[in-house]
Structure formats: C-alpha cells, structure tokens
C-alpha cells in the first residue's frame, strides 16, 4: 500500500550572517506498509517521525526540500496526487490537537470526514465507543479537554474510510480504556485491509498491536523488526540501538543507554549511532551503513548478524 524509498528531507534557513545553510533531518529513509498491516514507527523526540508523516501526506512546510520516492498503491505520490488523496484515501491523526478546526462544532468535523455510510450514525458510534456524551457533538474545540480533543481527532480519521491511516502519537492524554479502544480500532482497520502507521514513543503500546516495528534514530531507520523479535534479552533484535531500547523498558533490565541522539546540524560521520555503540569500530565512522536484510528484518549496521 505504501512504500517510502530513499527519502531525505532538508531545511533551508539563513544563519546569522544571512548565508543560506541546509540541515538534513531525514537521511535515506525507507520503509513499507502492506494492506492489512500495522507498522509502528518508534524513536525518541526529534528523530523525524512527524516529518516522515508530513512528507507522506504532502504537508511539509515550504522551506523543506524532499528527495526520494513515495509510492501509494504502486503509483508515485506527486504533490497533486497527495492533495487528491489526503483526507480521502490517506488520513492523518495529527500529533497536536491544534489541528481541529476551532470554528466548527466537533460532531460536524467528524461527520464531514465520512465518505461512505451514514455520517450521523458513524459519528454517534464513534462517540459511544469513547464514552463521549451526545451533546459534546455540538461543542467547539475550545470546550474540550485534551483527552476529548484527542478522541475527536482519532474519530475524524478513523471514520473517514481512508486506506492508509497515519497516527502520529495518537494516545497521550487518553486513559487506559480509551487507549485500548484506539489500538483495537487500528487492528480492526488493518483487518479490513487498511495499512496503518502508528507513530509513538511508547514501544510497549506499539508491541501490543504492531506487526512490525521501524526504529528511527537521528532521521534514519536503523532497524525494522518483527514484533516477535522483541523477546527475552533481545537476542533476535538486529541493531544495538533497538536492543538498548528494549532493555530499557520496565520489566526488562531497565538499563538506560548513556548519551543522547545527535542533533541534525552536528551529525557524526558514518554510522549515526557509532558514538554510543559498544560494537563500533573505525569502519563505522567511514560511511552511513546501507540498510540490509537480516533474518526477515532490516538493519543499518555493519556488525549486525
Ligand atoms: N519547519 C522546520 N524547520 C527546520 N527544522 C525542523 C522543522 N520541523 C522540524 N524540524 C526539525 O526536524 C527534527 C525532527 O522533527 P520531528 O517533529 O519530525 O520529530 P519527532 O520525531 O516527530 O519528535 P517528537 O517525538 O518530539 O514529536 C527536529 O530536530 C526538528 O527541530
Ligand atoms: Ni512528532
């Protein structure tokens, strides 16, 4: 359904001497999502998750320069096609609740996104699932709590009938039952043949529903693993960063990885993870390792086996 190939995103800006400088945020990123599949995209803050989502939908800011290819249903996604498909075949649950239209009643926002079926009925069902009282439909976004606004954003995208759903951190502010409801709705959509991208910091939540997990680090995919690879001490995981994330979870060894992700304007040469990696050798500093297939997954590390 979706294929992203060699995607790079740069931003142009002017420095203090008004010279134009470019910062590359996303480097040579590739991933794919099949119909019926949930792909989780995990990575720490600033790793480029939202920019990836915005590049797919064609809503990057004007100073972004994009290279690479994105295919939807086998056809290249041009800006024109993105405009046509957005809100139709492709829907976004945005990271920020600011994306709600402040001047439109929230029930209307949900109903307007329905393309197939009875809008009033689908809106009522969505509200019922989320324990939102009927009268809330008449409210404006400023009257909602953060959790309610989040539920409206999720409802708007999930009633749309889109074939590709991109959920950018959909669950903050939701209580346990609303979170379970949301994740099981994604599973249901996948079973109906949709492709779902679930962007999240929360690896544990991702592992409850995702089929595969793509791990982002400093703007590149370091590993795409199967859900079943996250087990035991992490011996089935391919990249040292993924192993470190897994081992840092409560219930595992809970050993945090020292250091931090490099900033986009100060990236190391070669492998972006090498400065924090216990396996790093001088070869790692030569060039960004190519992504390669290892045991049904993908990894960008010279030392992975
Ligand atoms: N319009 C922009 N101009 C310049 N740099 C930008 C712009 N938008 C984002 N960035 C930079 O791109 C990087 C990735 O941002 P992005 O929002 O994709 O991260 P993220 O992984 O979604 O983080 P979070 O988990 O905090 O949402 C950040 O370093 C950010 O500063
Ligand atoms: Ni983000």
UniProtKB/TrEMBL annotation:
<keyword id="KW-0406">Ion transport</keyword>
<dbReference type="InterPro" id="IPR050388">
    <property type="entry name" value="ABC_Ni/Peptide_Import"/>
</dbReference>
<dbReference type="Pfam" id="PF08352">
    <property type="entry name" value="oligo_HPY"/>
</dbReference>
<comment type="similarity">
    <text>Belongs to the ABC transporter superfamily.</text>
</comment>
<dbReference type="InterPro" id="IPR017871">
    <property type="entry name" value="ABC_transporter-like_CS"/>
</dbReference>
<keyword id="KW-0921">Nickel transport</keyword>
<keyword id="KW-1003">Cell membrane</keyword>
<keyword id="KW-0547">Nucleotide-binding</keyword>
<dbReference type="GO" id="GO:0005524">
    <property type="term" value="F:ATP binding"/>
</dbReference>
<protein>
    <recommendedName>
        <fullName>Nickel import system ATP-binding protein NikD</fullName>
        <ecNumber>7.2.2.11</ecNumber>
    </recommendedName>
</protein>
<comment type="subunit">
    <text>The complex is composed of two ATP-binding proteins (NikD and NikE), two transmembrane proteins (NikB and NikC) and a solute-binding protein (NikA).</text>
</comment>
<dbReference type="InterPro" id="IPR013563">
    <property type="entry name" value="Oligopep_ABC_C"/>
</dbReference>
<dbReference type="InterPro" id="IPR027417">
    <property type="entry name" value="P-loop_NTPase"/>
</dbReference>
<dbReference type="InterPro" id="IPR003439">
    <property type="entry name" value="ABC_transporter-like_ATP-bd"/>
</dbReference>
<feature type="domain" description="ABC transporter">
    <location>
        <begin position="9"/>
        <end position="243"/>
    </location>
</feature>
<keyword id="KW-0067">ATP-binding</keyword>
<keyword id="KW-1278">Translocase</keyword>
<keyword id="KW-0472">Membrane</keyword>
<dbReference type="Pfam" id="PF00005">
    <property type="entry name" value="ABC_tran"/>
</dbReference>
<keyword id="KW-0813">Transport</keyword>
<keyword id="KW-0533">Nickel</keyword>
<dbReference type="InterPro" id="IPR003593">
    <property type="entry name" value="AAA+_ATPase"/>
</dbReference>
